[in-house]
Hints:
Radius of gyration: 54 Å
Structural class: alpha+beta
Shape: extended
Number of helices: 7
GO biological process, one term: maturation of LSU-rRNA from tricistronic rRNA transcript (SSU-rRNA, 5.8S rRNA, LSU-rRNA)
Protein name: Ribosome biogenesis protein ERB1
GO molecular function, one term: large ribosomal subunit rRNA binding
CATH architecture of the domain at 253-597: 7 Propeller
CATH class of the domain at 253-597: Mainly Beta
InterPro entries: BOP1/Erb1 (IPR028598), BOP1_N_dom (IPR012953), WD40/YVTN_repeat-like_dom_sf (IPR015943), WD40_repeat_dom_sf (IPR036322), WD40_rpt (IPR001680)
Distance between the termini: 104 Å
Pfam family, one: WD40
Number of strands: 33
Strand content: 25-35%
Strand order of the largest sheet: 10-11-12-14-13
CATH topology of the domain at 253-597: Methylamine Dehydrogenase, Chain H
Amino acid sequence: MKRKVAVIEYQAAGRDALKGKAEGDALEKFLGMMDDPDYWRTVPGAQGADIKLTGEEVEIIRRIQLNEYADTNYDPYEPYVDFFTGTVMQTPLNSAPEPKRRFIPSKWEALKVAKIVRGIRKGFIKLAEEEEQKEQIYDIWSGELDASILAVKSRHISAPKMALPDHRESYNPPAEYLLTAEETAAWEAQEAEDRDRNYLPQKYGALRHVPGYGRFVNERFGRCLDLFLCPRAMKDKIKMHPDDLLPVLPDPRELRPFPTSKSIDFVGHVDRIGSISVDPSGQWLLSTSTNEVRLWEVQTGHCRFTWNDWEEVHAVQWNPNKALTMFAVAAGTAVHLIVPCSLPTTDATLAAIEQLQSQPQPDTEAKLKWKSCDPFQNRGIIETIEHPGTVTDLHWHRRGDYFVAMAPTAPSGAQMISVHQLSRRTGQHPFKKMPGILRSVRFHPTRPHLVLATQKSVRIYDLAKREQVRRLLCSVQSVSSLALHGEGDNIIIGSHDAKLCWFDLDYSVRPYRVLTNHVGAIRSVAFHPAYPLFASCGDDGAVQIIHGQVFSDLSANPRIVPVKTLRDFVGSVSQIVFHPIQPWIICATNTGSLSLFV
């Protein structure tokens, strides 16, 4: 086998020109590196021979490796030579003298002008002569006619096409479309307007056997009547999404604070809780069951005192005057005014007790006589007022001097409502008769008005003028509860048919909004005295917390947004009341549970 040799080029005789020196192995390279002092500056050449670099070449390589200029004599920071300076030079660089052609008339333009002149002289080119302006006559109706024609054309609607014939109208219909003798007799017995079609399907053996159509004129006449008596009109189709009809409500998270979770359970009652009330400071809570009244500390859930001296307790409410530590209890036919001995008594309370007991007994009706008691011997009871019937509801005036009691079982309608004044120890019946079955009674927060809720309506009376101011139409089956907004212009009622009605007294006598969030009867409703919140509870075991913002601008409607549903209850929720300061709510059930939600 012929030895393979690396060939670089060929000689003139055609023989291969071999490399000048064969490459050695690693050992020979190492020995050469140790023996040759110039090995570090020796590099292999293109022809195979080693080349020894000079000092200048080594310096160029070193400067290139250091990212420097290869030429040692090059100065990158030498002074800049400005060729265009203010010194006038004898020979300009770029401003050559103006050519002569710029100062003489153009030859080609002269030829074009001469051609145009010859055309004008020979008449080939005619000049635009000035025409005499004539008086133009305008049609004042032309624009309107054009507009009317365009409007008619734009509103043109093509006539609907006639319905295409079906298989029954074929000259050779399938057998299933042909009528039997009984069906034909039944069709002929019907009136013309009662028939589903105005022809009988018929079968012919060939198209040439089909006779002339006898109802052609009738069909053309009916078609003309349809086009004449049924004019076509173009109506704009409103494209609206169903969600666009719903009001845009804010996110409930933006309406905080409001109660969301249970905080404290008040353990002690075993029967249905009929009434609850929080004192104006928000520290103490009163609750009533069948025959007892309990006093609780709100923040700890501790029961401080219990009154169980009565057989039947229906209602309890604190005096809204912060200076008086006093509350009223409706037990049977009597209303008891109590100053709890277990609480610190203020000087204003002691002065009120002394003034109350120093008043002589007024000459009033026997059934409204006040009876003074020793608070230290009667567990804090200072006064007892007897009524002609069982008192089921009572409410204090915002100043704390008046309170109203409701006794639906009184023998006459005039004795069902009693208004009492604490400072004078007097009571009176402001009404001669009742308009219906009473459900609740409240004082108006800002005006001398009394609000009565009957089974079918809500009536507002002016106590100063002794007249009815307004009658609200509830449109519910039966009213169960009543609450007034702090400003007095809005009222909410609950009903036994699971409806919550919001009345805006500046809007109408009918409900502004009706909410149906409950599935059972509503037992109690309440407004928060400080926050834009109201709530309702019912037999479905739920408490609905609703944001109700009332704006000072009379043109803005109240904003009502449901924000939370509390369902951590066993049985029906009978009573609710808001904390007077914090965004908390206290809920009572018919099983005796009492809870605070924060």
